[in-house]
Amino acid sequence: MKKLLCMFLAVALLLGLSACKPPLAVDDIDPTKTQIYIAIGDNGVGTEFLYDLKAAYEAYNSEVEIVPVQKDAELSNGVDYMRSATEDIIYVNGSNDFSQYENYIMDLTDLTNIKAYDESGEYVGKGNGVKSLADKMKVYENSYKMFNVGTAEQPKFMSLPWFSSVFGLWYDIDLFESGHLYNLQGYTGIDGISGTEDDFYGPDGQPDTYDDGLPGTWEDMKLLLNEMKGKGFKPFTFSGMHSWMRNWWLETVILNYEGLNDYALNYSFDGVDSDFGTIDSTNGYQLKQQEGKKAMLLVAEEIAKGGLYSNGSLKTTQTHLMAQSEFLDSTTTDEPSAFLIDGNWWEYEARDTFERMAKINKKFARGERRFGYFPVPRFIGTEGLKDQENTVQYVRDVSGYLILVNKNTKVKEEVEDFLLFAHSETSLRNFTKTTNLFCSYDYDMSNDLKSLTPLARSVYELIHDDNVEMAYCGPEVLCVSDGLTAQESLLSLRGKNNTFFDNWEWLATIGEGINARSYNDPIRDMAFDENGQITAATWFEGYAEACSEQTWNTYFH
Prior knowledge:
By secondary structure, the chain is of the alpha+beta class. The protein contains 19 helices and 18 strands. Strands 6, 7, 10, 11, 12, 14 and 15 form a seven-stranded mixed sheet that branches. Strands 3-2-4-13-5 form a five-stranded mixed sheet, with helices on one face. Helix 1 (48-60) runs antiparallel to helix 14.
């Protein structure tokens, strides 16, 4: 596995999904067995995996009964649920800041160090193995420190990582093939010269990789979008209700242009920017003028001003679930959509739509339709923008999914046994085969790829590509430097000034005097701009106005 990059996610996602099965009724409880109650909520992953795990564990240990309990609304506040939790184990999405919850959450550090697995990663019982959970944790082995709230020398785990997801742009492979959208004439590739061998290599500039035939640069991307528009396509579909979803993808554009170091300064405000030099608490405002933000605004402007979005994408009533349905249904219309902005959980989350469409034609079934990750093109040869220097494709890894244990559980030994069993090689593989999502542990899916959907295989290929780096990032993220833990990062400049940095990535002031207005949703605001006042250029200028040196000094000096 490649080196994974270290950032801390603290964003509660709103991913509505009903349970696959109802929780057990009280009458179903077997009084002759020891019960482990597990709370689980809306995480875009469903509960089918948990019922499969229940069956497997109960076959392994006939004296224990696993009782899943659906807690959707209750778990919407993430870790705060632990204040009143009665269940033994909680699967939840949320922050890794446990400073207020140590009276409610069990310390799992000792559990992570138990040698319970053989060389192949299979569970062989507590103390009987040669590997521990710490050995299997990618987040630990690769120095994320995201779940470690102790120190590098004395780690402390108040939670276990659950699964990770890729957030970004997904494209319809079938549409690209039928619409002849690969290898368009006019592509120049990253060398910017048409007719050379790299024209169709994609953003990585390498042949025979996952992005072959896709646009290598933003200039090539504009050719693709123009081709789609000429064919009557509505290229982009996304949630109109949840602005963070489209903005997360736009921020990935910034990350890919700037590279990790310069991007991460927007969270640490402590380091050296390639253009502005040393950045600290005295001059962080300069980062509002990073070239990557200008590149991102060009993308937003192209989508917004070109009307390159589906009918529902800017309706505030359109949820992410509705966007998924619109995207899938569009293939049967005269205005098909090529791209969906979402996390790779969307395919499992939209399974009801797949089932409905499969009743019309089996070719529309989940697993039959093919989707893949669409990488961010490089910015080379774009007028008014410095050529991008970063050559790494950064992919946004959304991994704030936690497994917590109630400190007051009365079945500690059974809980530990279950959690260790749940992270065996077989259990991890089964989770992925059921959900098509990948857990944050080292395990081998190479022999099971045929059981996954094309989208999941696309993600597997992506995360195993040598030129791809997974990065924890986002509007509410704190960068964790080498040697720092997630807990310590909360003491950073940004961590102590959440109000000031609210909408830091997007906030711009456009207009003069009494006509000046604040904006923070580039695609939507540009699309609804009737006077032509809001453009990539005016937004970039508005960044400096929204966070001037004077404004910065008001807060920090």
